[in-house]
């Protein structure tokens, strides 16, 4: 899976769920046929949190993640570039 594909998938999932943890994200991925190791998902969440794309809160020893304002802007940009890429491929 391409780096930006994973970022797009994580940001989309979090835009649909107000606040969730890594296990719930892994379950959401599995539901759409994307099977990733839970450790890979946790590392991606940590990276995106450090980049300012996600907010994070610790509850009962588990981190819950949400989409930050910066993450929402990045999601919009990634979706627009993904659409442009598909549109460009269709016109060739």
Low-pLDDT regions: none
The number of domains is 1
- CA radius of gyration: 14 Å
Order of helices and strands: HHHEEH
Shape: globular
What is the topology?
Elements: H1 3-16, H2 22-31, H3 38-50, E1 54-59, E2 62-67, H4 69-90
Antiparallel strand pairs: 1-2
Helix pairs in contact: 1-4, 2-3
Give an account of the 3D structure.
There is one protein chain. This protein has 92 residues and is an alpha+beta fold. It has one domain: Orthogonal Bundle (Arc Repressor Mutant, subunit A), CATH 1.10.10. The protein is built from four helices and two strands, in the order H-H-H-E-E-H. It has helices at residues 3-16, 22-31, 38-50, 69-90; strands at 54-59, 62-67. Strands 1-2 form a two-stranded antiparallel ribbon. A hairpin with a 2-residue loop joins strand 1 (54-59) and strand 2. Helix 1 (3-16) crosses helix 4 (69-90) and helix 2 (22-31) packs across helix 3 (38-50). It is globular and about 45 Å long.
Features:
alpha+beta; two-stranded antiparallel sheet; 4 helices; 2 strands; Arc Repressor Mutant, subunit A
Write a short abstract of this structure.
The chain is of the alpha+beta class and 92 residues long.
């Amino acid at each position: 899976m391409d780096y930006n594909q994973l970022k797009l998938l994580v940001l989309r999932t979090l835009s649909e769920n107000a606040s969730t943890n890594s296990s719930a994200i892994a379950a959401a991925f599995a539901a759409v046929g994307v099977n990733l190791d839970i450790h890979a998902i946790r590392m991606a969440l940590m990276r995106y949190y450090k980049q300012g794309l996600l907010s994070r809160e610790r509850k009962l020893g588990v981190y819950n993640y949400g989409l930050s304002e910066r993450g929402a802007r990045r999601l919009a940009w990634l979706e627009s570039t993904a659409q442009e890429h598909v549109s460009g491929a269709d016109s060739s």
